[in-house]
Design brief:
With 328 residues, this protein is of the alpha/beta class. The protein is built from 17 helices and eight strands. Strand 4, helix 8 and strand 5 form a beta-alpha-beta unit. The protein is globular. It starts with a helix and ends with a helix. It binds phosphoenolpyruvate and magnesium ion. Phosphoenolpyruvate binds next to strand 2 and helix 11. It comes from Altererythrobacter xiamenensis.
Length: 328
Amino acid sequence: KQAAYAELRDVEPFTRCGTRIQVMINAGLRDDMSALAMTGADGVGLFRTEFQFLVSATLPQRERQTRLYRDVLDAAGDKPVIFRTVDIGGDKAVPYLRDEAANMDENPAMGWRALRMALEREGLLKAQARALLEASAGRSLYVMFPMISEPWEFDAAKAVFDEQLDFLKVRKKILPESIRFGAMLEVPSLAEVIDILAPRLDFLSVGTNDLTQFLFAADRANPKLAERYDWLSPSILRFLNRLSNALVGQEVDLGICGEMGGRRLEALALLGLGFRRLSITPAAVGPIKELIRQVDLAEIGDAMNRWLVSPPADMRTELREWAAERGI
Ligand code: PEP
Ligand code: MG
């Protein structure tokens, strides 16, 4: 099987009906970048910039951040890298950034984390913005903001980048060739107002790890709960379907970057719901490419529509049998 996946490295993931699906990888360290060439993925759909902070004993200064981002872009070559601004706090606490506000969190995952923290500790976000802009001089930059709950948070975060961009312009520095801004959808509240934010977004990436935790009110780190709630449950699938429908006709590139996209049956369901970009763990690229090549999008789309209206008692078994009947 491994050899078969290796052979798929240079094969582009077209569905059986001829649609090109973007298959990207999730990464967080310099060393992860070798997986791009190894898997033949289309780029990095989620670069978790907080990893540099988590492995560091002290706050990584701007120059160190710039160096990392430049190395990552060098390693990616022509392939896009979506940098997510720091998602610190919650389960990813760093001692040198602890704050009274974080100490008040009884539920850190729902607490003072990610952009909530970065927008208040403006120096942190400013430094990261400048590092990303400088590292991307003459190239494309993709920036994604985590844990957006309301549209104004996206605007405020983008404003920090705009300000740093102006700073570099005035000083006649080389700027990125293009900049695209996106949001992560991890907090259910954002889905209710996504039509309002969509015109301002270049792309949207659903973080199903956190989304599931908030939708079910179930701690993502607790294995007992992980067994209880299924990614293929009608609640999640209907949620994702409504989101995907809400973005039809909008120029927002919709993708997914949670672990869900790296599982075969889940990926099949996501394709049926209209998702065309999956960012997944590198080990899953081979199996998911293989799956994509066997899928007819209209066929799985029809099946999903039926199942969303009247969900089968066991969606997982239903999907598995549906796939098996078609030799998938
Ligand atoms: C997610 O929440 O689904 C996600 C991709 O981000 P992280 O796992 O880093 O929280
Ligand atoms: Mg998350």
